[in-house]
User: Which sequence fits this backbone?
C-alpha cells in the first residue's frame, strides 16, 4: 500500500505504483512527490550532497507495523529524464519508485556486486517499465568514456 503525498501540481495515477509496492512488500510505503529545490535540501541534509537528485529513500526499521519507509521523487528530475530517454513521465516515476523501494529493502548498488542491478532489471521487465535506472547510469558513464 502507498501512502501518497503530492507537494507538486503534477497528477499521477497510483495504480501502477501500487502494483510495484504490493509485489515488493506487504508494508506501507510512503511516496512523496516534490520539486528539485526540496529534494536538494533533503539530499544536502541526509547525504551531504548539496544538489538536487531524482530519488531518495528513507528506510524505517524497528517496530511491528512500521511502514517500510519513504521514497521521495523529484517531479522536475522525472520530467527531464523522461524527455531525455523518450518515455512518459509516469514511466519515469515508476522507474524511480522501483529504484527507491529496492533501497528501502536493503539493496545498495554501490556495494552489492550487481545484485540490485539484476533485481531492478528483472522487475523493470516484469512491469514493462523503461530501462532501469542503474542500467541508464551505466550507459551514460560508458558514453562519456567512449563517445
Assistant:
Amino acid at each position: 500500500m502507498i501512502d501518497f503525498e503530492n507537494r507538486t501540481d503534477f497528477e499521477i495515477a497510483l495504480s501502477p505504483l501500487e502494483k510495484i509496492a504490493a509485489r515488493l512488500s506487504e508494508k506501507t510505503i510512503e511516496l512523496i512527490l516534490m520539486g528539485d529545490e526540496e529534494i536538494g535540501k533533503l539530499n544536502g541534509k541526509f547525504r551531504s550532497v548539496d544538489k538536487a537528485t531524482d530519488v531518495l529513500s528513507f528506510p524505517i526499521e524497528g517496530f511491528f507495523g512500521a511502514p517500510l519507509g519513504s521514497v521521495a521523487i523529484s517531479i522536475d528530475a522525472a520530467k527531464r529524464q523522461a524527455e531525455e530517454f523518450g518515455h512518459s513521465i509516469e514511466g519515469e516515476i515508476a522507474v524511480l519508485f522501483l529504484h527507491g523501494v529496492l533501497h528501502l529493502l536493503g539493496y545498495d548498488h554501490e556495494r552489492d556486486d550487481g545484485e540490485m542491478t539484476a533485481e531492478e532489471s528483472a522487475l523493470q521487465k516484469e512491469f514493462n517499465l523503461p530501462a532501469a535506472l542503474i542500467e541508464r547510469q551505466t550507459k551514460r558513464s560508458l558514453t562519456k568514456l567512449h563517445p
